[in-house]
């Protein structure tokens, strides 16, 4: 029987994962080292390995938690709701995630760019099944003439691309816009206008 973790153990685990997130999102999985993570966490390397047996275990823990966070807004799309309102709410939530969790977005992007070696099962399983279900809802709304007819999967891909860009290319966006612009405020308004026009019937 596994003993419940103490408050100190929970705190140390979170400290390690926060440090791992910082290092992985900066250097990628291949470039990150246990020594870097230990230094950022302010813990010894043996202490790190007491909580997580390997760099891979830390990375997997972060990705598992991240996937739930990333998919929750899509899960919230209500088939009984107003189609345009539901889609725009999803767009807004995705841009908020890019604003609030830029390191997590880069971690996910790095994993996908590497061919998703540690997430393939989840992507081909839970993620695909969820996207298929929500695409069926979108197709139903299109069949009813409530939103414009578009390829549903590609509509979701477009939302991902247009929102996550602001996290994955944050430095580029801010450099181009300059210091007087809030990229996320402007992006939210722009994307709402874009999708309203795209989906209008």
Content of β-strand? under 5%
**Fraction in helix:** over 70%
Number of helices: 10
* Large-scale geometry: globular
Runs in which pLDDT lies below 50 for 5 or more consecutive residues are: none
| Structure class | mainly alpha
Query: What is the CATH homologous superfamily assignment of the largest domain?
Result: Tetracycline Repressor, domain 2
Number of strands: 0
Indicate the radius of gyration in whole angstroms: 19 Å
Average pLDDT score: 91
Distance between the termini: 59 Å
Pfam families: TetR_C_3 (PF08362), TetR_N (PF00440)
GO biological process, one term: negative regulation of DNA-templated transcription
DNA-binding region: 33-52
Keywords: DNA-binding
Structural description of this entry:
There is one protein chain. With 201 residues, the chain is mostly helical. The protein has two domains: 1-53, Arc Repressor Mutant, subunit A (Orthogonal Bundle); 62-199, Tetracycline Repressor, domain 2. The chain contains ten helices and no strands. Helix 1 (7-31) crosses helix 2, helix 1 (7-31) crosses helix 6 (102-113) and helix 5 runs antiparallel to helix 10. The longest helix is centred in the N-terminal third of the chain and has 25 residues, at 7-31.
Question: Quick gist of this model?
Answer:
One of its GO terms (biological process) is negative regulation of DNA-templated transcription. The chain has ten helices and no strands.
């Amino acid at each position: 029987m596994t003993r419940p973790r103490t408050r100190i153990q929970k705190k140390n685990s979170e400290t390690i994962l926060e440090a791992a997130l910082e290092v992985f999102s900066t250097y990628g999985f291949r470039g990150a080292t246990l020594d870097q993570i230990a230094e950022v966490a302010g813990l010894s390397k043996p202490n790190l390995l007491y909580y997580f047996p390997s760099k891979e275990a830390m990375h997997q823990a972060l990705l598992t938690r991240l996937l739930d966070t990333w998919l929750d807004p899509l899960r919230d799309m209500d088939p009984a709701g107003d189609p345009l309102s539901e889609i725009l709410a999803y767009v807004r939530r995705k841009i908020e995630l890019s604003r609030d969790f830029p390191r997590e977005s880069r971690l996910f992007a790095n994993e996908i760019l590497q061919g998703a070696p540690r997430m393939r099962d989840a992507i081909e399983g839970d993620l695909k099944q969820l996207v298929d279900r929500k695409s069926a809802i979108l197709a139903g709304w299109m069949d009813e003439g409530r939103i414009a007819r578009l390829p549903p999967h590609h509509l979701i891909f477009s939302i991902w691309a247009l929102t996550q860009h602001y996290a994955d290319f944050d430095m580029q966006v801010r450099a181009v816009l300059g210091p007087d612009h809030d990229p996320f405020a402007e992006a939210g308004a722009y994307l709402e206008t874009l999708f309203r026009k795209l989906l209008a019937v």
